[in-house]
Amino acid sequence: MIPTETLADLASAPGLLSRDLDDLGIRLHDDGGTLRVWSGEATTVELVVFDDTDLDWITHTLPLEPVAGGVWSVSTPLLRPGTRYAVRVDGPHAERNTFNPGTLLVEPYSRGLISRGFDDWRSVVVEDAFDWGGVAKPGIRMDRTVIYEGHLKGLSKRHPQVPPALHGTYAGLAHPAMIEHFLSLGVTSIQLLPIHAFASEPRLLQHGLANYWGYNSVNFFTPHAPYATEESRRQGPEAILREFKGMVKLLHAAGLEVILDVVYNHTAEEGIGGPRTSLRGIDNGAYYRQQDDGVYIDVTGCGNSVNTAHDAAARLVLDSLRYWSQEMQIDGFRFDLAATLGRDAAHTFDPDHPLLRAIVDDPALADVKKIAEPWDVGMGGWQTGNFGPGWQEWNDRYRDRVRNFWLSDVDYARRASAPPVGIGGFATRLAGSANTFSAERGPLASVNFVTAHDGFTLRDLVSYDVKHNMGNAEQNRDGADTNRSFNHGAEGPTSDEGILATRRKAMRNILGTLLLSAGVPMLTAGDEFGRTQRGNNNAYCHDSPLTWLSWEHAPWQEDLFAHVQRLLFLRRENPALRPSHFAKLDEHTPSASVMEWYDAHGETMSIDRWTNPANRTLQYVATSTPEHEDVNRVLLMVHGNEQPVDVTLPALDAATQFVSLWSSEDERPGERGDVFDAGQVVPLAGTSMRLFGVR
Q1: How far apart are CA 475 and CA 496, in angstroms?
Q2: Residue 95 a catalytic site member
Q3: Name one Pfam family in it (predicted).
Q4: Cys-Cys link to 256, which of 19, 251, 268, 537 (CB 3.0-4.6 A)?
Q5: Contact status, residue 135 vs residue 219, Cβ threshold 8 Å
Q6: Residue 658 to residues 52, 226, 638, 693: CA-CA distances in angstroms?
């Protein structure tokens, strides 16, 4: 932890950083431990200690005493590494309270847990020691970051080179075979779906399903035990922690970052009447957003919303982030439904919310990446572009525009004999979304993605017009209805080679756009080799081969993988493709890219060309203004019609030749290297891209 004096000096959120809220949870010392629990409305708080082997056998109960600011405390030699414990809390009966002195509750700062069912848990005292062996965080610059989003279990569950005992585990993710895949692909940062301890909803369990994704947190400090190996689970929470840290250490030693998808916006306690496992029993009125009559204000769609307008709830989130950043050496966080975290006491989003400011200002979090999913389902919940400096954001506008350009626009053009829009909006996204993110934040504020865990996979995006979610036991009502997808002539699997070839090229166009755009690219695990979920665009409840990555690939899938490798190599080698700042007209801006736009005739784009729906062809020249690398210049051709076109290379100052680097027309990327002169005509196939180096 950083010194209390440093925290007290932070002026951005003095209530949130009150010293009364320091050292919550358990702190071990020579003669046992001290437990501190916050509950502003409690009348009694009790520590319950269990037998080491029989978790129904209560061996001791001790009262906690009120100290200051709603904090209750007890010091006892009973609190030692390995102790199983819970808390019980009583308080006044009122509209917003749900106290029950008989309920055994998870202590919110627990570093270890033992599950006895989705609503029955025991906290465990852990020592938390680990030898990092001098391995440090890679500290990858944002302009060089390439995020790979995947599910911890699904990534290694079926990998033939990972030993069966490690399949789907923390140790399995760090196996040399997995690390070799990440490094050979060219990604830098592994972003894991939630690994905080979570539970499946009773409704899913009744249908024989499970919450596979993990967006249903029980506790914000404990790693999910089922992701550990059987041996670590047998040894207990301390061994699970060691396995998790060992995974991080091995990935760091390979130069790979670990980013966690964190769910602080709601918990597994669901709505009133759901499980009372922790916060609801400790101080329901403070921890959850409610109306005066106790009805929950649910802006997450999950039954409850954590009330980060309250200092204790906000501090719980901040302390969790510090723990994972410092003790677990995590490199970054992707905040699920981050707009919820920024809602004030009136439940309105505030970009200067004390918690959002504290996360950016906290010295303990200075070296971590902070990525917001900038929306929730409440009023005013769509906030893309509105988070402040220090934040990156998932850019859904980028996702939608890229899908439209390569898929739904092409579908429309087939049916209407003309495209609905031109290329102007697409070009804005390609160049870093300056219409969404301020000049102060620059293009790196945008985390570009076209697919994610939530929605169609890339292969399904080009293979299905509609979702196919009947296996989710919700009569196909769940999942997005608007996908901007296009099946290219047949719904789902087909043997039509023409349709299959068009789909493959569409995938290459989308991947080329994603990996050559300004901003931070996020690749969804499995898209590099065309993984399918058979049209299910909401596979959150399937812990099965449907969602586990398959490592047996057809030749076309190996070709697609080679394209991703090539594109990521080109991104690394060409700083013009990854500017840190937006260029300013007639000014030299370090670490920016000066952009020039030409039409198919090699002439500067006119206003009419920008706005004409019939114009779907563009040449984009980016020239870097680097601080740390050599000057670099590239030209990207984009053609968004299905009819082929001849493109004339522009005449650029001091540039005489264009070297072919990559083309989406190729089934498998070649070395290319063909050299063209300014003014020479380059034929482009329908709906295709080509990248050139300029010299």
Answers
A1: 30
A2: no
A3: CBM_48
A4: 251
A5: no
A6: 71, 53, 16, 6
* 51 is a catalytic site residue: no
Residue 473 near residue 209 (C-beta atoms within 8 A): yes
Domain boundaries, the chain: 19-125, 578-694
Q: Give the helix/strand (H/E) hosting 519.
A: none
Q: Do domains 19-125 and 578-694 have the same CATH topology?
A: yes
d(CA 321, CA 599): 48
Indicate the CATH number of 19-125 among 3.40.630.10, 2.40.50.360, 2.60.40.10, 3.90.1210.10: 2.60.40.10
Q: Helix, strand or coil for residue 258?
A: strand
* DSSP states of 10-70: --S-TTTT-GGGTT-EEEEETTEEEEEEE-SS-SEEEEEEE-SS-TT-EEEEEEEEE-STT
Cβ burial, residue 140 (10 Å; 0-12/13-18/19+): middle
For domain 578-694, give its CATH number from 2.60.40.2100, 2.60.40.1180, 2.30.30.40, 2.40.40.10: 2.60.40.1180
Q: What is the pLDDT of residues 42-60, one digit of tens each?
A: 999 999 999 999 999 999 9
Contact 288, 352 (CB under 8 A): no
Q: What is the pLDDT of residues 621-665, one digit of tens each?
A: 999 998 889 999 999 999 999 999 999 999 998 778 999 999 999
**d(Cα 61, Cα 286) in Å, to the nearest integer?**
26
Cα separations in angstroms, 29 against 4, 34, 37, 60, 79: 18, 8, 17, 20, 9
β-strand partners of 393: 372, 446
Residue of 107, 319, 336, 599 marked active site: 336
Length of the chain counted residue by residue: 695
Question: What number of other Cβ atoms are within 10 A of residue 53's Cβ?
Answer: 7
- HSE at residue 145, side-chain half, CA atoms within 13 A, is 31
d(CA 68, CA 311): 14
3-class DSSP string for 288-311? ECECCCCCECCCCCCCCCECCCCH
pTM: 0.96
401: CB partners within 8 A, 6+ apart: 425, 426, 428, 429
Q: What is the pLDDT of residues 426-463, one digit of tens each?
A: 999 999 999 999 999 999 999 999 999 999 999 999 99
Q: 138, exposed or middle or buried, with CB in 10 Å at 0-12, 13-18, 19+?
A: middle
Q: Return the HEC string of 425-449.
A: HHHHHHCCCCCCCCCCCCHHHEEEC
Could you give the C-alpha distances from 182 to 2, 156, 188, 389, 526, in angstroms and in order? 33, 12, 8, 30, 12
Q: How many other CB atoms sit within 10 Å of the CB of residue 274?
A: 18
Vertex 357: Cα angle to 354 and 362 (nearest 5): 115
CA distance 455 to 517: 21
- The CA-based dihedral angle spanning residues 302, 308, 314, 316, taken in that order and rounded to the nearest 10 degrees: -30
Structure tokens at 359: 């996360």
What letter represents residue 649's amino acid? L
Long-range contacts formed by 72-77: CB under 8 A, 24+ apart: 72/36, 72/37, 72/38, 72/39, 72/42, 72/45, 73/34, 73/35, 73/36, 73/37, 74/34, 74/35, 74/47, 75/32, 75/33, 75/34, 75/35, 76/32, 76/33, 76/35, 76/47, 77/31, 77/32
